[in-house]
Structures are given as C-alpha cells and as structure tokens.
Design goal:
It is built from 15 helices and 15 strands. The chain is of the alpha/beta class. The chain has 3 domains: 4-272, 3-Layer(aba) Sandwich (Rossmann fold); 291-407, no CATH class; 415-461. The chain binds one RNA strand through helix 1, strand 9, helix 6, strand 12 and strand 13.
Length: 464
RNA sequence: GGAGCCGUACCCAAGUGGCUAAGGGAGCGGACUGCAAAUCCGCGAUCCACCAGUUCGAUUCUGGUCGGCUCCUCCA
C-alpha cells in the first residue's frame, strides 16, 4: 500500500510521489527562539518526527530541514511593534544573540527528550540574510516589490495566485480587532514586508541594497528551504495557524521569485488545546491561580512526575489533523497506557511462531500508518494485538524506545529500600500485618510498587 | 464581517452509507493476595449534540439550529 498524505493545498489525501526518489525532501517551520517551547509547539514537532520516520520506514531517504528563527519577528504590523527577540533580551538582560542561543539549546533539549530526531539541516536565519536579500532582489527584478519609508513590500496584487493555499477571498478580508494597527504605507492590506527599513531602535540589523534594516517575517523560510532543498521540494509542514499568512506569503514570494512551483505537499498539524483554548508563549510565565504547577513546557511536565515519552504517547491519542485536549487526567491515562506497553513480555508474544498472523497484523497497522499517518488507529491495533515484536517493529515510527524500556534492568534497589523490604518480610513471617502494611506505605511513599507473590516480595520503581 | 475545523460512553479519542461504532485510561465483577498493589480474564455507548432532508438504509452525505475551537495580529 502506498503512503498517502493529506495535502492542504488540494484539501485531499494524495498518494505521496516524491520529485526524485528515493530522496524525500521535507521542510518544517521551526521555533522562534525567544522563549521555551510549550507542549503545544512540541506536539507539532512530534507529528513532523512521525512523518519523517514514516517516510524512512517506507524506504525513502529523508532530507529534512528545519529553520531556527533567531531574528525576531515584529509583534505587529506597525511601527510600535516589538521585536520578540529584543523584548526577551531586555527582559533577561542579555543580547538578542545570547537569547537565541539559550533558547535554541533548550529547544533541542526538549526535542531530544521526546525522541524527536534532529533534522538533517537546522539553519539559523541570521546566517542566511544574504540568501534572503537575493530572493528580494529577484522579486524586485520581476516587478513584485515596492519601497516605502517602512520597508520593501511584496505587492500581492501583482500575484494572481496569492492566497491559493488558504483559499483567501481578499476582498472579504478585514482586520478583526481594533488594536491591530495597519501600516498606512501599504498599497494593499495583504501586502507584507520583505525588508524592514528605518527602525533605529532595532538591535539586529544588516546592510542591504535598500538600506540598513532586517528581513521580514516570512522570507527566511523561502531562503533556507530553497537553499537546502531546491526551488521545488516535496513536503512543507507547520502548524495550522501558518496557513493563511506565513505559508501563503512564503508561496507568493518563492514562486514569484523563481517562477517554479514551491512545494508539492503541504501538511499542517492541529493545535493542542488546554482548558478548551490554545496555548501561547506569552502566557508561559504567568502563574496559576491554584496551587498546582502550571503545565506548559516539557520541563514542567517532567517536574510534575511525567515521563517525556508519556507525552509523546499522549500525542498519539489523536490524529495530527485533530485538535487534542490536554489535561492531567489524559496524561495519567497516557502514562498508564505506556506502562502497559513497557510491561509487554517478549517471551509470551501472541504472534510469535505464526508468520501468517504476524504478516496480516503488520499489514493492518501499516495500512493505518500509510493512510495519512493514522497513528491513533495504529496504536489501537497494536494494543489489541499485544505483540511485543510488532510493537518493536513499528517503534521505528513511534519512537517510544520500547525494546530498550522493556529490556531495561530495574534500577538497583537502594540500601534503604532493601532494608525496608527485609524488615517487612520478617513482619510478614510473623504475621504482623500492621507493621507490614506500615512498611509498605513507606515503600510506596518512596516511589515503589510493592507486590507479594508466590516467590516472595518484589519492589519496582514506579517510574516508567 | 470573512475563512475553516469540531461536537462519538465518566475522561482522552479512532472510525464507517448497511455486518459486534477501534484503542487507552477510569469504573465495575472475577482470579491472585493476609489485605492490597501490579498483572491476567470478563463487563461497559440499542447509540455517535439537536432538527429536517437525500436514501431501501445515515453516526457517516446535504441544509438548518445550538455549543465549542482556530485563523483573518506574532503564534505549532
């Protein structure tokens, strides 16, 4: 069965046919490194990781590029917009470059802990300003730009196909809130900046043919994707929020610069919802009303006692194109579910010794995966088969470290725990149940599971 | 105002024009246990927000209503 994926451009599932097999080229919008990634951001990177693993599983050689945005985007269209990198720098008393480096490292620490593979290329925006200027020059030569006191603009009225990804009806667009200040120098509301000019307070600046300034919000992705993957490449991913503006503008500036199709397949991950709404980085540092720790970054999840891979497994509950509701209860459910997977026994595999049954089961799971990454169905099937070897085979896609965790030797029991077990055994021998129960409670408090079986008492760490 | 998504058991959710509506968690019953925990076995939506329509037949298609969400500002 061929791999099919949902293409936002056509709003249909399509069979994946790469430009130059066995190579599959993939570009994913990466983080803007001015703050920690929250678990909603991370959900999208988990989805993209599953995609690249699935591509490789089906025999492709993956070339995956993800940008690191280390130059801030403006927070609004107008003069008073703050650069996020600059705001963070002021907040933390650092330079923008220090901020970027710090949060880039934090980002990769998180993705590593989630078993998200590093893309083959992770270019930084600040290292590609020359390429961005090159694209703007081509756009200028092709007659798609104009210059105002604010910067160099892309003239969307010159692009007949502008908005095709989001199916925008430009005449019906308008700003939704009063506080959005529109730039008076723009010719059309949908025009966007390619290069900012005359921003004296801005710290990160570069020389350009149009004057000293800094690049616009979208040009870096066009520059870096095309540099590393070519004018046309296979798949471009990102969050659904990127469809109407960011990816729309990427397509416009890329295709008008090269006169080639930019991307063949567009894939978008849906949001993680918390309390019925989306998460935002700006609320990351806010305190909660109640006493419970606020779960918003991977680290807060870990601090609350959850395993990073339990979060990864939690993401597999819902299809990547569906919103997913986060709650501690759901995280607990995912943790219990994963624990069950890790408790699988290689020695009592219901499918071992029956190659026909194994092949049939494998086929069903594979069909689910190849049908636009039907990971929830795949996990459901895997759960009902309960086969260690089948889980392990698909762990190449799931990335849950199943073989390692199942084989992992239990951590050495600390002396303190061993002594408690010994004294509990004595109490049990003497049928001193009160003492026995009391010691058991102590062991539980220390994070151990206590089990009395026919072969004696066993303790096991509650950690996954 | 425009564009789009969603509403399936207590929770997270998959899915289909008609055969028993996945799976996980929680819960319940049983085995096990000194009692538990863990584990194993079993049970669980006569029903897929509501109302019409299309159809021999709809949870699945169409229209409407109600409710929720996202985007049209930076955002995964």
């Amino acid at each position: 069965m061929p791999l099919s994926i949902y293409n936002t451009m056509t709003r249909r599932k399509e069979e994946f046919v790469p430009l130059s097999p066995p190579l599959a080229t993939l570009y994913c919008c990466g983080p803007t490194v001015y703050n920690y990634a929250h678990i909603g951001n991370l959900r999208t990177y988990v989805f993209e990781d599953v995609l690249r693993r699935t591509l490789r599983f089906s025999g492709y050689e993956v070339r995956h590029v993800m940008n690191i945005t280390d130059v801030g985007h403006m927070t609004s269209d107008a003069d008073d917009g703050d650069d996020k990198m600059q705001t963070a720098a002021a907040r933390e008393n650092k330079t923008p470059w220090e901020i970027a480096l710090f949060y880039e490292a934090a980002f990769f620490k998180d993705t590593d802990r989630l078993n998200i593979e590093r893309p083959e290329v992770t270019p930084r925006a600040t290292g590609h300003v020359a390429e961005m200027i090159g694209i703007i020059k081509r756009l200028e030569e092709n007659g798609y730009t104009y210059v105002t006191s604010e910067g160099v603009y892309f003239d969307t009225s010159r692009d007949d196909e502008y908005g095709k990804l989001a199916r925008l009806q430009l005449d019906k667009q308008r700003t939704s809130r009063d506080e959005v200040v529109s730039d008076e120098t723009k010719r059309n509301p949908s025009d966007f900046v390619l290069w900012f000019l005359n921003k004296p307070s801005h710290i990160m600046k570069w020389e350009s043919p149009w004057g000293t300034g800094y690049p616009g919000w979208h040009i870096e992705c066009s520059a870096m994707s095309m540099k590393y993957l070519g004018d046309t490449f296979d798949i471009h991913c990102g969050g659904v929020d990127h469809i109407p503006v960011h990816h729309t503008n990427e397509i416009a500036q890329s295709e008008c610069a090269t006169h080639h199709p930019f991307v063949n397949y567009w894939m978008h991950g849906e949001f993680l919802l918390m309390n019925g709404g989306k998460l935002s980085k700006s609320k990351l540092t806010q305190q909660t009303d109640d006493q419970r720790p606020k779960i918003s970054t991977l680290q807060t999840l870990i601090d609350a006692g959850y395993d990073p891979l339990a979060y990864r497994y939690f993401c597999f509950q819902a299809h990547y194109r569906s919103e997913l509701n986060f709650s501690l209860e759901a995280m607990d459910a995912a943790t219990s579910g994963l624990r069950r997977v890790y408790s699988l026994s290689p020695n009592s595999d219901p499918l071992s010794g029956d190659p026909t049954a194994y092949a049939a089961a494998r086929e069903r799971v594979l069909n689910a995966v190849y049908d636009d990454l039907g990971i929830p169905q795949a996990v459901g099937l895997l759960n009902s088969y309960g086969s260690f070897s089948l889980w392990c085979e698909f762990d190449a896609i799931l990335g849950l470290d199943i073989a390692e965790r199942v084989a992992r030797q239990p951590d050495a029991i600390p002396e303190q725990v061993a002594q408690l077990v010994a004294s509990r055994n004595e109490a049990r021998k003497a049928k001193d149940w009160a003492k026995s129960d009391q010691i058991r409670n102590e062991l539980i408090a220390l994070g151990y599971e206590v089990g009395d079986g026919p072969t004696g008492t066993t303790v096991r760490s509650k950690a996954l």
